[in-house]
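step=encode ok
step=design start
structure_in=
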């Protein structure tokens, strides 16, 4: 713990720790204040891109006029399988996991230098090697299995009917989602690596909330000290942030003296690519999905059964934060408790519309599908 604090570069000796920790705490408090949102996130959600972008183009660039209100909270995605995915982030914007991890720490507490002497540019306290080690560790994370001894036995016949439906044209689920291993894989990339393919679906076809996609796709910032690097004085913040993460990564690779092979290993044997498909959300594999409510990128649907209902029959408001599970509908217990927060789907960024692939099914078919999803 002590060593972790020291490694951030905030302090160099034990005596300096209290002041370093005060400095770090006030930095985090200031970041929360900069990125305060009028729409409450509640439990399990954060406008990670909004906050991160504010830290990069507002704080690190020293340009407060670039700060925007983060108004598109998204669910924390589950972590199993992520190192193997072809694309990560809800909008499929990142191919190299290390770049996502760098972005994450820059968004929450890492320090980053973008101003001042060019030789200092892209210096950061993000510990790229440790981020790589964390990603390696994730590779062995398995999705949880439905615990029948706690949550009740799976109805095998129903689940078998659900599987057939999942793979049928009537429901069409398998056209976009792989279910569980063995996953189909992409063909070899130039380093002989294969990934679990991700289907990207334009939000206009899907109909789920558009705020996260739009914020990412159309937000711009003055580039100030990065004008030369960006090649323009006003840039889209998505690509601009990515340039910053790439430069942070390259700088640390050089500082660590990594060989070309080690650099490739840290990058997951992937070359950087632009983006899977613009204005789209990702349909990932569904192993362990039973344990990850609430659903959709913005956590606007409390359980799997409701996700298969037409939008108007889904809960318009529900409480998040209970530690109880609803094994019947497979998702959150949405009753109000001492520490719960209310999720109101009429608030901007919280729409529970879209992804209506279960709407035309009979109720019996929906329960078949829910039973099958428990087994993934
Ligand atoms: C046309 C492609 C497509 C089809 C068909 C499809 N989905 Fe999806 N699914 C998606 C996309 C894209 C998302 C992410 C949408 C979002 O978060 O806004 C998603 C999200 C989900 C989620 C929530 C994932 C999470 O982490 O919250 C579940 C569960 C799911 N789909 C199950 C199904 C089932 C069951 C079917 C069949 C009835 C189905 N899907 C049909 C594309 C599809």
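sequence_out=
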């Amino acid at each position: 713990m002590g060593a972790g604090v020291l490694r951030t570069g905030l302090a160099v000796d034990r005596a300096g720790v209290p002041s370093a920790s005060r400095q770090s705490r006030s930095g985090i408090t200031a970041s929360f204040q900069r990125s305060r949102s009028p729409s409450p996130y509640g439990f399990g959600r954060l406008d990670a891109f909004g906050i991160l972008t504010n830290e990069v183009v507002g704080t690190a660039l020293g340009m407060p006029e670039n700060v925007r209100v983060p108004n598109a909270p998204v669910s924390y995605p589950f972590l199993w399988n992520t190192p193997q995915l072809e694309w990560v982030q809800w909008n499929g914007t990142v191919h190299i996991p290390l770049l996502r991890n760098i972005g994450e720490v820059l968004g929450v507490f890492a320090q980053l230098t973008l101003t001042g002497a060019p030789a200092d540019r892209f210096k950061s306290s993000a510990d790229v090697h440790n981020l790589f080690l964390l990603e390696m560790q994730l590779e062995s994370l398995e999705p949880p299995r439905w615990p029948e001894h706690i949550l009740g036995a799976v109805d095998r016949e129903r689940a078998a009917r659900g599987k057939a439906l999942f793979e049928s044209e009537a429901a069409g689920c398998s056209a976009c989602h792989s279910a569980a291993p063995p996953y189909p894989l992409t063909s070899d990339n130039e380093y002989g690596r294969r990934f679990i393919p991700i289907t990207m679906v334009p939000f206009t076809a899907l109909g789920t909330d558009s705020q996260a996609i739009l914020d990412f796709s159309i937000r711009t910032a003055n580039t100030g000290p990065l004008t030369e690097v960006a090649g323009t004085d006003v840039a889209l913040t998505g690509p601009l942030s990515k340039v910053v993460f790439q430069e942070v990564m390259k700088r640390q690779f050089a500082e660590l003296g990594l060989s070309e092979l080690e650099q490739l290993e840290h990058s997951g044997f992937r070359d950087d690519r632009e983006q899977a498909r613009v204005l789209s959300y990702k349909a990932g594999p569904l192993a362990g999905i039973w344990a990850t409510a609430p659903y959709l990128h913005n956590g606007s649907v409390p359980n799997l059964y409701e996700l298969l209902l037409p939008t108007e029959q889904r809960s318009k408001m529900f409480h998040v934060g209970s530690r109880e599970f609803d094994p019947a509908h497979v998702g959150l217990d949405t009753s109000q408790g001492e520490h719960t927060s209310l999720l109101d789907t009429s608030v901007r960024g919280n729409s529970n519309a879209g992804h209506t692939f279960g709407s035309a099914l009979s109720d019996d078919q929906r329960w078949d599908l829910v039973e099958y999803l428990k087994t993934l």
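step=design ok
step=annotate ok -> The pocket of heme C is lined by residues 171-173, 175-177, 199, 201, 206, 208, 281-283, 286, 289, 292, 295-297, 304, 307, 355, 357-358, 369 (CB under 6 Å).
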